[in-house]
Amino acid sequence: MRPGALLNLFKLRIGMAIALAALAGFACARGPAPEGWRIAALILAVLAASSAAGAFNQYVERDIDARMARTRRRPFVTGALAHRPAWLWLIGALTAGGVLAAWLATNFVAALYVFLGAFTYGVVYTVWLKRRTPWNIVVGGLAGSFAVLAGAAAVAPRPGPAALALAVVLFLWTPPHFWSLAIACREDYAAAGVPMLPVVVGDARAARAVLAAAWLLVSASLVPAALGLHWIYAAAALAGGGWFLAKCHALAARPGPDTARASFHASLVQLAAVLLGVMLDTALL
Fold this sequence. Notes:
By secondary structure, the chain is mostly helical. It has helices spanning 3-9, 12-28, 36-60, 62-66, 75-78, 86-105, 108-129, 136-140, 142-153, 161-184, 186-192, 197-201, 203-221, 231-253, 257-284.
């Protein structure tokens, strides 16, 4: 069993982004901070649960992945990892371990958010929605929101205004991010029979939806600056948001794989700017 296959299976890059969202949620929460080891345990719990959800996604979608150029080298498709029910036991144990660790280290509310994040991505998005509706990724965006709320709940079970606003930002980020990728990979999704937005409405209308969603996202990303964060966060949100909007306008003007990939990568810059902006703002001001 190659380490690279396991890294691919558990989608650790996505897991790290989700864990960073939880850390940003903790950073913007108001209240007495728990001990460092408790926060570290929560972040690892979020990473474990997110990784389990990513592995479950690949287990369930082996048939789809085999029909898409972007995913046909995933380990269950290539045979690098055997597609056996034993994986479901490991995935379940990893999820349960993450939820339990979050509960023991922090509190029940944080653990509930950890569970809801994994459940939303693994079951709601992957099993219930992805093959049925082009709105699949809109609901799936809640997974990132729950990570923010888990981090905030480690400080206080009831999230404050800044944490709630940041959770909304994570929810609004997913559609323009993933629709950009779906435009770039529209033929893949069409071949796999997955009703992603560009497959259903075409590239041009999907690109306009990306642009509208991006404007909503960037507008929402400025709200935390009015709810307790400061100029460092505002500057980061404006810089990342401005770059993303520029690429989304280019996509709307010339819908196609190249502009869609540029918009997709710009969405990652925007997310990094927001999350790192939160942490720098709260650490330095």
